[in-house]
Each structure stands twice: as structure tokens, then as C-alpha cells.
Amino acid sequence: MNYSKYILWVVLCITCVSTPAQTIEKILSKEEALQLALENNYGIQISNNNVEIAKNNKNLLNTGFLPTVTGNAGAIYNIDNTEATFSNGNVTSLEGAESNRYNASINLNYTLFDGLGRRYNYKQLKEQYNLSELQARETIENTVLQLFSVYYNVAKLSEDVVLLKQNLKISQDRLERVNYQFDYGQNTKLAVLNAEVDVNNDSINLLNTKQLLENSKRDLYVVLGKNELPNFNVDTLVSFGLQPTRDELYKKVSVNNVTLKQLDKNILISDFQLKSNKSGYLPSIGLTGTYGWNKNNNNAASFVATSTNTGLSGGINLSWDIFNGGRNRTQVQNAKINLNNQKLQKQQVALQISRDFNNAWEDYQNKLFVLQTQEKNVQTSTDNFNRTEERFKLGQITSIEFRQAQLNLINAKNAKIGAKYEAKLAELQLMQLSGDLLNSSF
Fold first, then answer.
1. pLDDT, position 24
2. Beta-bridge partner residues of 287
3. CA separation for the pair 158, 352 (Å, rounded)
4. What are phi and psi of 115, to 5 degrees?
5. Stretches in the chain below the pLDDT threshold 50
6. Rounded distance between C-alpha atoms, residue 162 and residue 85, angstroms
7. Alpha helical stretches, state H, 184-229
8. Rounded distance, CA 123 to CA 136, Å?
9. Which residues sit opposite 105 in a β-bridge?
10. Which of 416, 399, 414 shows the shortest CA–CA distance to 170?
């Protein structure tokens, strides 16, 4: 009895504390949750940064199409012991003779033709950027699915808490009734004890569900990238907005599915890599240009004391790897194999996605049917409970029979709540496969 009273006291305290708190808790709507996830989720932020890197890489400055300009400068200082014999027979001997030389130049190099290698490399970089955008989209889609999986779990547990509070109130009323009946000799002590046990069990279920709700709210904040106390409620309204037929939706899979689109980009990149490797069979032609300045200060043993040169020079060069040990041939063969592997991988993944789509469609239809059936069960269980409650109040049935009707109603309502959110998540998974997840309603 003392333990029972303790549990009832704890539940009463939690209810009293949580009731005013709920009045100040804001409603975190689905749209707001989605916006927060897109802005703050760390996985999405990292993916967006990778897109920026790919964008920088495809810039013209990273393609090799522009010339290179380098500057060089130098100075040399000499102290020599020199003995020089001139053509007229004179001999000059110097110790510690000083001389120095200075030079500066600007060099320009530009590749006119490299076998089209840089052209295909540039196309690869552009496709890598497009691929990074698709990878970012996939990250966003997976995050959205994760977000609403947790969001709807919070919504389900929120409804469960309300349901369990109602259930506890019914059990408390029943305990109060059987106590009155016992006091007036209309019932046995066993009925009172059974009612107390049921109140205790319902209280424990409520406490455990509240704890699960708080944990789930913290999980949701992790997805949202927030580090705050989860003081909020969620929207428990669920709508189903899937309009296309199965065939219409399946047609979108081959066009919009993000995984298949990434494989298309990988095939294109591999094709450009093959063409880039083939460019090694062709020569490269380049231009060079230099503007230089040189000054020499010679020692006394030289005919010229000081000389200064400035000038502009230019040239054209051709380079051709006629045979480089077979490296080009090996690279081309490997690129062909890699391209074929990419095509095979797409066929394999396309087959798997087709299977996944069919499974997801049937799973969605089944869950909608289950939801409709559970709604009927709730209505039936409600009618049964209302009739049972009337008979219990009239003393026509036992408290155990009343408890069974109560449990049937609670289980039916709980099953309906679960079926509702399971059907919605099945719809979202189906929309992801068709590539319409980010355009669907939540």
C-alpha cells in the first residue's frame, strides 16, 4: 500500500509540474523542423561545403587552359685569386679579386595543345561538381527521412502520453468506485487489490513513456543541430498527399532517383577519364616567352669590366611520347574496364531500386489498409468499452471484465496511433525512391 501511494504521489507531482509547462511549450511544426534541419544539421553543412570545394575545382583557374607566368631573380658574388695570361704575353695576377652577377627574368609558358587532355579534365571537373550536388541532395534526403522518423516518434509518444493519462484516470476512477463498493459491502477486498495493481501498472507505463518522450525530443534536437533543453511539442496531424498512380510514380524512379542520377554522372566521368587517357597518344605543343635582365661586374682579369643585357626571347616546342614503356596503353585499358564497371553497377543498382520500389509500394498500401482497419477497431473498442462501463457501474460485470475492455480500447488506440505514423513514413520512403521526397508534403 505504501508503495502504491508513493507511485500515485509521483505521478500526481509530475502531472502537476508538467501541466503548466506544457502551456508555455511552443509547437515545433514540421515546416519549422525541416527549416532548422536544413540550416543547422552538421551532415548537410559538410555536404554543402563539399559542393563549394567542387565548385572551386571546376573554375577556369584550375583547368590548365590559362598560361603560367613565373619570375626569377638571382645574384652571385665571387672573391677569386686569379692569374691570367693574355695573348700578348702579359701576365696579371690578382688576389681577392671581386666580381658579381645579377639577373632577373619573367617567363611565360602556355600549352597550345596537349592532345585534348585538359579539355576532358575540365569536363570531368564540371561533372564532379554536378555529382557533388547530387551527393548533397542525397544527404538532405536521408536527413529529411531521419528527421521525420524522429519527429513522428515524438508525435507518437506525445499521443501515447495523452492516451496513458486517460487510461490512468479511468483506472483511478475504477479504484475509487471499488473502494466505495467495498466500504458498503458490495465488493471484495480482492477487487480493490486488483484495481490498485492496475493503477500502479498504468502509472509506471505513463512514467516510462514520458521518459521515452523526453529522450526522443533530445534525439530530434540532435538532428536539428541544436544543443538546448527540448522544451517543445510537435504537430500530431498527419496527412497523406501521395497522388500519382503506381505506374506514374515508377516512371519517375528512372528519371529522378538520386542514386541512379549519381551513377549516370559516374559513367560520364569515367568516359571523360578514358578520353583524357587517350590524349597521351598525341603530341603536346607549347609556347614559351622570356624577358630577362643580366648584369655582370667582372674582375680586372677580364676584358670587359661590366656588361648589361636585356632582351626578349620566345619559342615554340613540341613534345611527343612516342613510347613511354606502355603506361598510356595500360591507363587506357584500365579506364575502359572502369567505364564498363560503372555501367554494370548502374544495371545492378537499377534492379535493386526497382525491387525496393515495388516493396515500398506494397508496404505503403498495406500500412494504409492497416490504418483503416485500426480506425474501425478503435470505434468498435470504444463502443464496447462504453457499454462495459455502463454495466460495470450497474454492478452487472466484474472489475476484471471492465479492465479487459479498458485494455482492449487502449491497445486499439495505441495501434491506430502507430499505424498512422508507420504509414506516413512508408509514404516518405516511397517518395524518396521516386525522387520526389523534397517536393512532397510532410
1. 55
2. 110, 316
3. 36
4. 75, 20
5. 1-23
6. 113
7. 189-223
8. 20
9. 72, 292
10. 399
